[in-house]
Amino acid sequence: MAQVSLTINGRDYRIRCDPGEEDRVRALGTILDAKAHVLAGRLGHVSEGLLMVMVGLTLADDLAEVTRDRDEIRARLEAVGDAADQAEAQERLRHDADDRAAQVIESMARRIEGLAERLERP
C-alpha cells in the first residue's frame, strides 16, 4: 500500500492509498486544503473538528449541486434523444410515403400508356 503526505490547514497527515493513486490523493488533499483555508478565513478561529465538518458540508453541497446539474443534463439529453427518435420515425414515414406515391405514379403511368396504346389502335 502506498502512502501520501498531505498538509491540510497547516497540519500534516499521512494517508494510505492504493499504488498508483498517489497523485489523485494529493490533488484531493489540495482541494481540501483550499476549502479549509477559505472557510478558516471566513469563520475565524474554530476548532479543527468544526472546520473539517464545515469543509465536508461545503464539499457535500458542491457534490449535490453537480449531481443536480448532471441529472438536469441527463433529462435534457433524454428529451433530445426522444425528439431525435421521433424525427427519425417521421422521416421514415415520409420516405415510405414517397415510395408508395412513386409506386402509385408508376402504376398510373403504365395504365395511361396502356390506354393510350388502345386508343391509337384502329
From TrEMBL:
GO terms for biological process: cell division. Keywords: Cell cycle, Cell division. InterPro entries: Cell_div_ZapA-like, Cell_div_ZapA-like_sf, Cell_div_ZapA_N. The keyword Electron transport does not apply. It holds the Pfam family ZapA. The keyword Cell division applies. This is Cell division protein ZapA.
